[in-house]
């Protein structure tokens, strides 16, 4: 009897040891798994918080206008959001109440952004007061600290041709593209390069192209400088030059019908001092596009084919002028009711 009791006791002890050895590792595994899960959850929350902080630096005034407060710009520079191609036509202005204008460094920062695939607009300690005004009383506005900044820009579309004129003699056979007056645009062109020629040859494909359209995007040159187009109409083959057209701010779109070749010439005849590099006479930007004889430009501009406005998409939860899909759906539901 005593022997049987001892056997039962030993058997029970072995069972307890076996259960302990089996359950303990599983508990440890569960504990480690829960710890890793909590760690992942915490790191995910941290990433979401960081992402939220990075995305709340702007709101949307409208679909193409970004609105950045001075406080947010001091914490983090504003970054453009072009997919792959360079930034073009970046406009930034400082605003406070009824006052809007520019600051000491804002104009230069905006110019440095252009023609770069990646760009950020930083806050500068010199930006504490407005120095120029577009709207509002000059004497009241020029000493005001900006409350926020409004930023707009365009993105160059993929595969668009980019050429400059001054100081070169070159040609292109692309169907559409953008032309700069000189390599440093939008900085003013310097003394030295006085002449440039760019020839547009009719593309071989697609077939049927015969009219070159040119749209003036920006034109700011000295009165002593001139940009003009020359071409020969195919119906007048015995004439060397059929047309000479001077490009002026009074006209935004030019067409050369029934042609195989058009030449743009830019003549600059003045000496630029270093102090004028950031001046108003900074050159020009033209868009061009070849079309068939009966086709017309989309929205009346060759730039529509080449430039795409930067779209403002406000982060979730931010309050601004941007349109919200949820709000639109709610409005539609209310209308149905």
Automatic annotation (TrEMBL):
<feature type="region of interest" description="Disordered">
    <location>
        <begin position="28"/>
        <end position="56"/>
    </location>
</feature>
<feature type="signal peptide">
    <location>
        <begin position="1"/>
        <end position="26"/>
    </location>
</feature>
<feature type="region of interest" description="Disordered">
    <location>
        <begin position="310"/>
        <end position="337"/>
    </location>
</feature>
<feature type="compositionally biased region" description="Basic residues">
    <location>
        <begin position="313"/>
        <end position="337"/>
    </location>
</feature>
<feature type="compositionally biased region" description="Low complexity">
    <location>
        <begin position="40"/>
        <end position="56"/>
    </location>
</feature>
<protein>
    <submittedName>
        <fullName>Uncharacterized protein</fullName>
    </submittedName>
</protein>
<keyword id="KW-0732">Signal</keyword>
């Amino acid at each position: 009897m005593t022997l049987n009791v001892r056997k039962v006791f030993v058997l029970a002890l072995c069972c307890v040891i076996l259960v302990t050895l089996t359950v303990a590792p599983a508990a440890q595994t569960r504990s480690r798994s829960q710890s890793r899960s909590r760690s992942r959850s915490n790191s995910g929350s941290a990433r979401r918080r960081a992402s939220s902080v990075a995305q709340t630096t702007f709101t949307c005034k409208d679909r193409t206008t970004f609105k950045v407060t001075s406080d947010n710009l001091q914490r983090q520079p504003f970054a453009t959001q072009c997919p792959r191609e360079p930034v073009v036509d970046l406009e930034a202005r400082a605003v406070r109440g009824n006052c809007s204008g520019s600051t000491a460094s804002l104009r230069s920062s905006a110019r440095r952004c252009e023609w770069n695939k990646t760009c950020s607009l930083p806050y500068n300690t010199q930006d504490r007061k407005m120095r120029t005004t577009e709207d509002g009383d000059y004497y009241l506005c020029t000493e005001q600290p900006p409350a926020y900044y409004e930023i707009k820009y365009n993105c160059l579309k993929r595969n668009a041709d980019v050429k400059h004129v001054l100081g070169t003699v070159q040609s292109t056979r692309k169907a559409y593209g953008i032309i700069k007056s000189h390599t440093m645009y939008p900085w003013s062109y310097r003394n030295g390069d006085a002449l440039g020629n760019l020839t547009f040859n009719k593309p071989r494909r697609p077939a049927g192209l015969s009219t070159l359209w040119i749209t003036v995007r920006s034109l700011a040159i000295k009165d002593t400088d001139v940009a003009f187009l020359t071409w020969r109409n195919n119906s007048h083959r015995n004439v060397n030059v059929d047309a000479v057209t001077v490009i002026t701010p009074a006209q935004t779109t030019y067409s050369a019908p029934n042609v195989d070749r058009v030449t743009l010439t830019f003549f600059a005849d003045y000496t630029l001092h270093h102090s004028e590099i950031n001046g108003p006479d900074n050159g020009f930007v033209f868009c061009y596009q070849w079309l068939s004889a009966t086709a017309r430009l989309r929205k009346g501009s060759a730039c529509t084919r080449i430039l795409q406005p930067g779209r403002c998409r406000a982060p979730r939860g931010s309050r601004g002028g941007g349109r919200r899909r949820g709000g639109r759906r709610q409005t539609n539901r209310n209308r149905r009711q």
